[in-house]
Here is the input.
Amino acid sequence: MFRIIIFVVAVFCAWRWGDWQKLNRYYPTLLFSINCGLLYNVLLDNHLLWRYEPVPPLNNILFNNEIIDLAVTFISFPAFAFTYLSNYPYGKKQYLYIILWVIFLATIELITFKQNGISYHNGWNLGWSIVFDFAIFSFLRLHYIKPILAWFFSLILIIVIFIVFDISIKEIY
Here is the structure.
């Protein structure tokens, strides 16, 4: 049930607080967020760091990690990213804004974990997710302003993840 609530909340937030008049400006960054989610699935399919687990009542529809991850990638990620970008503040409030979004996502993940809707593997844990969320929210804003730089830093992050979590390039195939 919690997963349904998250999808509904994500879509509601985008509908309510998204700046729909600027959607065309945000669209490339929303695609960036989708591509990053898909890239995780492709690169780490054989060495997952986290895995979405089926939970009732959607376990007949969202019945495995791949299907759930696609739903998260195409519904929750872009909806939350759109809301995030639409309301991004200027000045010193930026840091607090990012922190609040990280807390929001960490809370969702913690509840999902407590309901067995996500499992951690290969040394990953909620702490790493929080660090990762800081990077994600920073990269989303960076992509909106300077897309090439965001892709560059994303590549650096991928390399760091491969090193820290001892992922071999051979595991990609």
